[in-house]
tRNA (adenine(58)-N(1))-methyltransferase TrmI (Cellulomonas bogoriensis 69B4 = DSM 16987), 363 residues
Amino acid sequence: MTTSSSAPGPRATTGPADDAPGGAPRDSVPGAVGATGATLRRGPLRVGERVQLTDPRGRLHTITLAADATFHTHKGYFRHDELIGGPEGSVVTSSGGVAYLALRPLLSDYVLSMPRGAAVVYPKDAGQIVAMADIYPGARVIEAGVGSGALTMSLLRAVGDHGYLHSIERREDFAAIARANVETFFGGPHPAWNLSIGDLSDVMPQVEGPGQVDRVVLDMLAPWENIDAVAHALAPGGVLVAYVATTTQLSRLAEDLRDDGRFTEPQAWESMVRGWHLEGLAVRPEHRMIGHTGFLLTTRRMADGVPAPERRRRPAKGAYPEHEWTPDDLGERPVSDKKIRRVRRDLGAVPPQGGDTTPPAAT
Ligand SMILES: C[S@@+](CC[C@H](N)C(=O)[O-])C[C@H]1O[C@@H](n2cnc3c(N)ncnc32)[C@H](O)[C@@H]1O
């Protein structure tokens, strides 16, 4: 395992939260130095900043501003100096007459355009994770795996400069990509971030004492392999949120959490976001949407020695089959012989009157 940190991650209680009452948010004062780069995200555009250009067809280009540099396309060029020192929301016109709108990329823009090793958690799911796992400023959070670092950035935004996020990734190459993405976005190392290379179940017990962690966020193939490590690290009432891509993973995780007995009844859901086309009277859903990303599951750590309450509702009949699955187990309503005969009659596929209805044996 290797662990590196930009700065020691302070505990939740060691510093004021970003929204601490009685004080202005750290980065609200124009000109103040913001540890997570808030000041870099305001004011005139500067050398070294990433800027997103949108052309008249809505196509995006991302450039890093540099003195004396030139942006070239097949529709002409313009000099970066025309943007440097100007406000966001400026429009610059290329030598070929194409107008480009210049804005700093939002986190959601950045995540969708940054280099990827592993598949990223999309902004719609990152928002759900932050909200439903209740990731708050100052929280002590563990995340694994890190992949490309997309979710990491939302978690860092939520815990704030005085929170603590320890991200654990078993692949050294993915961790390097994630670090580069995160540090590019924040303009340098984030004060609340630690990144370790190794397996969650090996690393977490070494870096966290029992019951010290407020939230655990898992995005990996087999989260159920880490239930014991998570139960060890989470404080009573602490939240586990897991993101999985398939129903089979979701089911395995839920059942293993129930069997473990140290967690509350798991809750699962997915979110679908449908964009809308807005043009005059043509206001309608977009024809295309992202139909599936993943499923989310949350559960909370019981106090030590307190068994999870029994569910009041008994599981549906057949939900836990002892034998081979039947259509009934899967919730299929049996179809009566009468109905089958009616459908066959309607289709003209009438069985011979009074005769044998079984099909002839194949020859
Ligand atoms: C889909 S990616 C995570 C993507 C990431 N959440 C993002 O938004 O960019 C899954 C990652 O989990 C890592 N992983 C899988 N099992 C792990 C474990 N037990 N401990 C640490 N990392 C693990 C994989 O190497 C992979 O990089």
Summary: The domain at 46-103 is CATH 3.10.330.20 (Vcp-like ATPase; Chain A, domain 2).
